[in-house]
Amino acid sequence: MEFSVKSAAPGKQRSACLVLGVFESKRLSAPALAVDKLSGGRLSQVVKRGDLEGKLGQALMLHDTPNTAAERVLLVGCGPQDAFGDAQYRKALNRAVVALREGAARDAVLHLTELDVPGRDSRWKARQAVQEIRNALYRFDELKSNNGKPYALRGVTLNFSERRDVAAAERGAREGQAIADGMTLAKNLGNLPSNVCTPSYLAKQAKSLEKSSRKIKVTVLERAAMERLGMGALLAVARGTHEPPRFITVEYHGAQRGVAPVVLVGKGITFDTGGISIKPADKMDEMKYDMSGAASVLGTLSACAAMQLPINVVGVIPSTENMPGGSAIKPGDIVKSLSGQTIEILNTDAEGRLILCDALTYSERYKPDVVIDIATLTGACVIALGKHPSGLLSNHAPLAQALLKAGETSGDRAWELPLWEDYQDQLKTNFADMANVGGREAGAITAACFLWRFTKKYHWAHLDIAGTAWLGGEQKGSTGRPVPLLTQYLIDRCDN
Ligand code: BES
Ligand code: MN
Ligand code: ZN
Q1: Ligand 1 centroid to 118 CA: how many Å?
Q2: What is the value of pTM for the model shown?
Q3: Could you read off the pLDDT of 334-372 as tens digits, one per residue?
């Protein structure tokens, strides 16, 4: 998909479709009014007939509007003008693309970017528009023998009323493309089945990032290296499967050598059966998404490289399957983590924290400025927050604030849960330094408390993306989250 940014008078450019906003109740936006004038009042006439009230989510395609250089005009409902904000802007964009992808228009000029979104500049509007459009056009049909007819839409022009806004909007559009490419990478990896997307496959995909940028260096450790290092917790999970584990690191050098990096640690369980504490069959297929944290790390690094951000970022990905093979760990088994702390594994389905704890200890070697782990860690987080925000827990308030803000800016939001010592008692056991589960209460928090014991040497935040990384049911598929949140956080670090 091609994007360009222009500042042209509405209705004067040749195109297959003009996209114009209409507020409730039947109030034409400024660009729509201009086209209405050109057409001798055609738009207001149509709207007056009552087919488009202007409610958010409505859309109406018109053909052959007089005196315009466009074949079609798509009117998009934007809701009440005084309630028009971030969410309404995104929704209107989404609705426009859903209408466009059904039709035959090969290109479109978008005037929704001219609408005022309180507190947002043209860079933000362009970035969000590109992301929203690319998101609505994503499909995963590479494994179908008859993949659907390609969409006709090839190019979108983002129009801005002020010429002075164009440069910033172009920058935003480039950022949007980089983020959308990162999300596409994350979605594809998530949607691939576990018989394709194995730990070795993830390693190969990571390796291929080296080709996209000279600033990226990828290292892959195999089982023997993990044994030498003493990653006893990660290796304990890997015992149950024939699929060899991988420990992947991706270094992006956008700043000078000495600048302390942001380390992103992504859970890379390519399939989670639960192990000996096996999961029920219902929806177990969705556990192919248990590597979504890893996928979001790769997507974010690819976006950083595309934007050439002037920072250092390291991705750390522990990856294995969680299977109940003959050598699998059993409830009650005790293992020694890379940190030296011992863990009694009371539930083999709490495997994410076992592979993450060794990755978190390993991350100390980068002398990080901050470490953020991203994991589909607990069903409890989905019960607590649903599928809208990711769960956020952190040992450093400024880092939590920065992530919450990046979530608001990108629309890929997180919500903070308390990381309090009070909960640590739930991980006590008579037989080891800690248990790997803390009972039914506050499951998302006790999982974070477990990880907290391995993050004492740096500023750290944990994102539980169990509810946000994919959708189930009819819309089953990876969301590419939280690539937008993470990328926005990194952009913000460079801007400030
Ligand atoms: N990958 C799952 C978490 C998960 C479950 C994400 C369902 C999304 C939907 C994780 O490895 C897991 O199994 N967690 C257990 C922890 C429990 C045993 C303490 C869970 O949430 O049930
Ligand atoms: Mn599990
Ligand atoms: Zn899991």
Answers
A1: 39
A2: 0.98
A3: 999 999 999 999 999 999 999 999 999 999 999 999 999
